[in-house]
Amino acid sequence: MDQLYKVLEAWMEACLEGHGIYAAQQALYVLQTMEANFDQKTSSFYTPSTSFYDIVFHAFASCQGRREAAETVQSVLQRMLNRAKKSRRYYPQPTTKTFNIALNCWAKSNEYDAGLRAEELWQVMNDWHHNCKHETNGKRPVECAPNERTMAALVEAWGNSGHEDTPQRVLLLLQQAIDQQKFQTQLVNAIVFTNAIRAVTRRKHPLGAEKAEEILRLMQQSHVQPNTRTYAAVLHAYMTTAESNQLLISKTHAAERATAILQQMIQKYREGAADVKPNVYCFTTCIAAWARCQNDDDTELKPQEIAEGLWDELLQLYLESSDPAFRPSVEAGNAVLMAWMRATHVAEAMDRGNDVLVRMRQYAKPDLRSYNILLNGMNWRGMGGESLKLIEWMEQQRPELRPDRFSFNSVLAALAKDRTLPNAQEQAEVILRRMEFSSVGADQFSYATVLDAWSRSEDTTDKARRAEALVQVMMDRYVSGESQIKPDNFIFSNWIKACIPCKRNRHQNDDASRISAFRAMEIVKSGQYCKPNYVTYTNLFRVILYTHSKEQEQECRQLLNQTLVECADGGHVSIGIRDLLQSSNVSLPSAIPASWSRSVPLRDRPLS
Fold first, then answer.
1. What is the three-state SS of 207-232?
2. How far does the signal peptide extend, from start to end residue (predicted)?
3. Are 228 and 262 in contact (CB under 8 A)?
4. What is the C-alpha separation between 314 and 267, in angstroms, rounded?
């Protein structure tokens, strides 16, 4: 028997080494041979013990076999139970460990119904335990009662499933377990509660953060002491909510709840509860939640000030204790910096951001992300000249601070928005060429941003030709195999937009720009790269209107009508197109037919 057990161990080790479900199936084959021997009653010597089943189940739990592994284990467990029922005196019975390994198989399967299947198995376990207590025949009953590991596997199965009912089911299971443990062994501990919090928040469920806090309260009511990891999991849930666009909980509310929980931790820690020490990760999580509140319409607070206030509180704890757990990290400083950069409505935000960088250097070295956050702040404010100076400085620094593609793209975006820098679009194209001939490389966003710069330009008559040349480069690169450079609707829309003359040159005959715009639209209509939408047509109508002189009014109207027929056939007539054509005295139905706008997003469709 020892030799057979060693064979099973070897197959289990093979699963751990990555040999997959094949190794687990070989272990099962050995077990099935022993089961067949018992059924034939040729020799009781080769009857498998419970430990044999446990090691085979462990092999399946380790093989990454997902549903196949979990269903195989559940099937073998049912065979084991059936044999034990028929021959309880002679055949081994599953223990708590046996059931827990089977539950763990479902937890690791990541299947959508894993939580439901694990609950079914849990019920089988409870029934078997109940029957064992009443059918011992004077023998000591086999210990198969659920325990904390059972509950941990059960909530993990729900958490990994991605099922929309996960938060409600996990909370209900915890409440049932708390009620049951009044009459039997301990079923919940800090690990179970922490796993439950992670389970309800893992797939960014819109109610996950609130359910996580509810679990935290349930934990406290059950006299199970939360620790730092438990609180950190709830804080992370609220930060994730602040990151998302879910409307069930506002970003401000999420940040406020995270801060309230952090303040609880600080208070408990100051009262002597060392297990809930609010480390730098907890502070960073809260600060990051506030950094994401800048676009939240329902807040009258100043998120950037609150974020920096939390950073100050962390610093105060560090100065009081010299505890490395409180030393402000570069991640914490970056979160504060992000809060200030996102405060685009605050005049002194850039200065305050620079102050944050200065303070960071006292405790942690700013990294590339620090300067990328600053560059992105310049992008949002259209500070092209300042972004050029910063990236030139970065290029002279140590290798880990050298600009990456994100750095250069932020500069390109800042240049595209800058209305004060002469020839910003020319400088953007110079940066693009530098990117192309360096290890950084240019991507689709890089080209799109330079095209945007040309389309916004008001001081050149050459922008249509320059935009077309850029798109031609993209098409050539895509055809040669660079799929990441594929032009899309945004690219072609910006090409067409670049064909709209500068304000001082509008309503003058500009055949070259008009021809370029129609060339772009023909490529779009071919479907090789993308298909037309209401944005491409909106820009094309503007090109037609602004590239004809007053003497060409009849030709202009004829071209508008021809283009309108195409646009309506494709269902691309939007509110903007309707208003543009009506202001140009183009004859339109009093109510735009619904079919004319069928391809337009609902918010941009005219009322039919």
1. CHHHHHHHHHHHHHHCCCCCCHHHHH
2. none
3. no
4. 13
Q: φ and ψ at 202, to 5 degrees?
A: -65, -40
Over the stretch 62-74, which tens digit does the pLDDT of each residue have?
Answer: 999 999 999 999 9
Which of 58, 61, 41 is closest to 50 using CA atoms? 58
Q: What pTM value is reported for the model?
A: 0.81
- Give the residue carrying structure tokens 């937890």: 107
With H, G, I as helix, E, B as strand and everything else as coil, classify residue 362.
coil
3-state secondary structure of 361: coil
Contact yes or no for 231/266 (Cβ under 8 A):
no
- Show the beta-strand stretches assigned E in 478-527: none
Residue 142 banded pLDDT, cuts 50, 70, 90: low
DSSP 521-557: HHHHHHTSS----HHHHHHHHHHHHHSS-GGGHHHHH
For residues 498 and 457, what is the distance between their CA atoms, to the nearest angstrom?
A: 8
Burial class of residue 95 (count of CB atoms within 10 Å of its CB; 0-12, 13-18, 19+): middle
Confidence of residue 457 (pLDDT cuts 50, 70, 90): confident
Residue 421 has pLDDT above 70, yes or no: yes
Structure tokens given for 560? 């508008």
Which of 288-297, 324-333, 426-435, 580-589 bottoms out in mean pLDDT, i.e. has the lowest?
A: 288-297
Question: Is residue 138 predicted with pLDDT exceeding 50?
Answer: no
* pLDDT for the residue numbered 608: 65
CA–CA dist 384, 598 (Å, integer): 40
DSSP summary character for residue 443:
-
> CA–CA separation, 239 vs 341, rounded Å?
18
Quick one: average pLDDT of 423-443?
93
Helix or strand run (H / E) with residue 409: helix 405-417
- Alpha carbon distance 342, 339 (integer Å): 5
Within 141-207, where are the H helices?
Answer: 148-161, 166-180, 190-201
Amino acid code (one letter) for 449 = T
Packed helices 280-291 and 303-321: angle between N→C axes, nearest 10 degrees: 170
Instruction: Compute the distance between CA of residue 209 and CA of residue 191 in angstroms, rounded to an integer.
Output: 18
Return the CA Rg of the chain: 33
HSE at residue 245, side-chain half, CA atoms within 13 A, is 0
pLDDT in tens, 536-564: 999 999 999 999 998 898 899 999 999 99
Average pLDDT in the chain = 90
Greatest CA separation for the chain:
110
> Can you say how many angstroms the Cα of residue 377 is from the centroid of all Cα atoms in its chain?
22
405-417 helix and 424-436 helix, angle to the nearest 10 degrees = 160
Task: Say if CB 184 and CB 168 are below 8 A apart.
Answer: no
- Taking the C-alpha atoms of residue 282 and residue 337, their distance in angstroms, rounded to an integer, is 17
Alpha-carbon span 475 to 453, nearest angstrom: 19
Report residue 154's pLDDT band, with 50, 70 and 90 as the boundaries: very high
